[in-house]
Amino acid sequence: MSNLMSQGTFYTTDMGTPLRIAQVLGLTTSAFLAGKTFAVSFGTVPALLHAPVPLLAKQIDDVFQADLIINPVLVALGTGVFGYFAYRDPNRGSPAHILYTTSSILLASVFPYSLLFLHPITEKLTRKAHSLSCASLTDTAIESGVAKEETTHALVDKWATVNLGRTVLSTLAAVTATWAAVDRLEVVPAAVRLGGGAGRMGK
Fold this sequence. Notes:
membrane, disordered N terminus, mainly alpha, 5 helices, DUF1772-domain-containing protein, transmembrane, Anthrone_oxy, transmembrane helix, two-stranded antiparallel ribbon
């Protein structure tokens, strides 16, 4: 008879289809939010800055209106999913529990960050969009009496810079949640016995 020992078998806690869908949804939404906020700051805003003041004010207000619909949904969904996975983890203090908790906190912090740092700039730009709605695009002196740091272009540029904070928070949330999902894979010893002759008959 011969015996063969094999160690290092991978296993992961079995999850039902609904939980797997929720996990993928949480990871996808947080990653999408990170990519979206990054694209706005590094792609959309630089392109908008070439527009005349009235048009810029209108365009950036359109960006704000879209964010009001999409971003809260993404943040709430991702926070709920990661918070639930942290809550259902029976091993309090385990790496997965800590990582899911961290990711839910990071994603939830997008709300207060936006309120404290982005909202004041957004309010100024929204007021400009309303006041300049009927202004001529060819009026180059439309902000001649406005302080340089309070011009529409300066405020939009500042908003894009501050918006990167949301990119950092959502990226870290996506990374820690992904790490938590991968960390569910563990290496455990496993034994496989191969017997010969009568050994296979239980003797």
